[in-house]
Amino acid sequence: MEINKVNAINVKNVTKIYKTSNAETRALKNANLTIFDNEFFTLLGPSGCGKTTLLRLIAGFEDITEGSINLFDEEIVNLPPNKRSVNTVFQQYALFPHLDVFENVAFGLRRLNKDKNFVKKRTLEVLELVQMQDYGKRKPNQLSGGQQQRVALARALAPSPKVLLLDEPLSALDLKLRQAMRYELKTLQRETGITFVFVTHDQEEALTMSDRIAVINEGEIQQIGEPEEIYESPNNKFVANFIGEANLLTGICEKNGENGLCKLDAGQEVPMFIPNHIHKGETVTIFIRPERIKIKKSDKEKSYCTISQFTYLGNAASILLNSNTKSINVNLPIEDVKNFKKGDFVEVVFPSNSAQIID
Amino acid sequence: MNIQGENKTQNRILSLLPLWIVIGIFMIGPLLVMATVSLMESNVYGGVHFKFSLSGYQQILFDTNLFDEIEFNPAYIIIIARSFVLALAATFLSLLIGFPAAYYISRQSNRVKNILIFLVTIPFWTNLLIRTFAWIIILGKGGVIESSFNFLGLLDKESSLNLMYTNTAILIGLVYSYLPLMVLPIYASLEKMDVRLLEAATDLYSSRIELIRKIIFPLSMPGIIGGSILVFVPCLGAFIAPDLLGGGKKLLLGSLIQFQFSYARNWPFGAAMAMFLLALVILILIFNAKLNRRHRKYEAQR
Hints:
A: CATH 2.40.50.140; B: 302 residues; mainly alpha; two-stranded antiparallel ribbon; 13 helices
């Protein structure tokens, strides 16, 4: 699927400050990002990081403190929500309790004064898209959580918005349903070709669904990139820790350059790329994913580590190594670690280019 | 099991006993007395002759003339109709003023909300009679309104606006007395409303007016209906505002009943009117319940 690079949303220097009588909260600090047309874009971060604030600013529910937001090159900061051609799927769905499913979905079209026949046709079409065509006459309180979710989606999609905003839409569903809906949402986005801006605190959701992810923390955008990029080469410690599991180890640079070498506190040597501005003898933090580390059996004298925890995960095992009071997390396929058990002396092997320097 | 079950029933009856006693003594008892009185013959010196008669009810529609012939007398029907129109007008005005007020209060911060609701209930702390007297000072000749009109030069010293002793004055008094009963239930239903529903409606291209018409109004319907009944019913039987502000010139149902007991000494007729009013109110409540049920059924069917 080719993404054509038309700017759908352009967020420029956006700052949002919430003022109460005795305090000021900076929810967003000088945020900049561009979301392309036809993209599944995810705003990812822990709760209270400002991701929902950004979404609400795009929807128009909050007044912006500073900066500008463009929707297909049109400034929308001064437009009220009902004049912006973006629609929102709310966290708790916010379906209108006094209207049935059909009228909920038709609501936006009716407000746009569309022709009656068109409203009917389009509403049925969208209901079919989310497989809710048989539930048109039900009231929202007669539907299950998953069904309400679909109606909320249909309602937001019906007016064919330029951008669809989704505020943690899956968080109220149980695990099984959540996983099924992930796939459906992704398919829906591909089929409709509408730009999705998806807010979540669930890194797995973000990695599986998104074309690109913006990781946000404490009101600041930490990194923007494709899922693989964010997972493989995080910009900083926060991103490394927030997305998946990470080992952050300190060591001393032995040699810089393409075939560099770093010596860890515990004594192991890690072959890796070390940029030239880091000189020999400098202390560095290196980042390595648990599944990139290999271990092999070793006798007591040669070994640096013992296995302090061995957790069986079915297809894999999570192993906690104790290396000179430091812990290292290792995650390996089960057939590679069949012969290991808690208390074994092991040697850690860092394959070249599996680790990288991190700020 | 069985013994326990019996115990439970016994407990339930016992715990509800105080309620039944209160309802029995203060509601059903007086009602029965009233019903009995309405079926007696009147005594010229007050009280009743203990003799069965329907004359109380007959008097609502018919009069006995000098020649002892029974003839149709529309006077009381006119009074009932006037009471109806005034009560309806008062309900409508209360809704017109009460709804925006309730909406405004429901949109404030929790602290401000509590203060405002407290302010709404303050009038209940003073006797209705005294509060209605205050309106005489406001509306009367040389009262607050006239003197401020004088001050602004809109009215010369000699003339009067003649606000007092009119239907308008009665209406003002009624709306003033029962407005809180409209505000509170509407506020309760608006307060429960999810703010995100309003956001969702705006997000789906609703203008301000459409927001009120399509979301806020339908969702506060239970409060509006409840408030309207709470205002309409006491307005129908009100006699303090009509007496003080209307000057008793144009009789209303409430004043008429009160008059029968205190001055006219025609208890059976007063009681009959009271029973008639009660029947009217019950009919309205039944009609409303039917309407509600049909509305709900219609919504469920769609």
